[in-house]
Design brief:
Structural class: mainly alpha
Radius of gyration: 19 Å
Number of helices: 11
Helix content: over 70%
Order of helices and strands: HHHHHHHHHHH
Largest sheet: none
Distance between the termini: 65 Å
Number of strands: 0
């Protein structure tokens, strides 16, 4: 039988069921059979993040990067781990590497913006937010919403309003929540 595919899909099913401990064991078995699979290391890394075993997850993503250096998602996920560990400079390095590999993917820009905000680098974060919107080719409302929330955090209310309008245009169901958040931020700015 094709044990690699069996373990691969069993691990995914266990993750969906949120049985992360068992999924980690399954992915470890799969890696024993196919140690040159960057994808398996990334799946194990993702599972370990869910178990809050960030140091081990980071090692898995580092191994995935060694095996498949062209996969930008592994760099972004490693950046996420470093950000969770408050190693913001390390996170920035990995987000920038993800952007260098896949410059038209908006997500590394968004994650980089969040990290720059945590570093109080608001102007740089605003530029990075705007970069992410240039690459929202699928015109996904979720990306517009996420960026507009970041723009609100850095106090760029006009940009946030413009971005929110694009999100609502794509998905009117977001309107109530979006305008509630925008109203709160505008009140906050008025009293500041």
């Amino acid at each position: 039988p094709d044990w690699i595919n069996f373990y691969h899909f069993l691990g995914k099913i266990l993750v969906i069921k949120q049985d992360f401990s068992q999924a980690a064991l399954v992915y470890q078995q799969a890696i024993k059979l196919k140690p040159e699979s960057g994808e398996l290391y990334a799946l194990l890394g993702e599972t370990l993040v869910n178990l809050e075993r960030l140091d081990l997850a980071a090692k898995c993503y580092q191994r995935a990067i060694q095996i498949s250096p062209q996969k930008s998602g592994n760099y972004r996920c490693l950046g996420d781990i470093y950000r969770q560990q408050n190693s913001l400079e390390q996170a920035v390095i990995y987000y920038e590497q993800a952007i260098a590999i896949a410059p038209q993917n908006p997500w590394p820009y968004i994650h980089l913006s969040e990290t720059l905000i945590a570093q109080n680098k608001f102007e740089e974060a605003n530029k990075t937010c705007k970069q992410s919107l240039k690459f929202n080719h699928g015109k996904k409302a979720g990306i517009y919403r996420r960026v507009s929330n970041l723009q609100l955090k850095i106090g760029s209310v006009d940009d946030a309003l413009n971005t929110y309008q694009k999100a609502v245009k794509l998905n009117p169901n977001h309107a109530d929540k979006i305008f509630e958040q925008l109203g709160s931020k505008m009140k906050e700015n008025a009293t500041a």
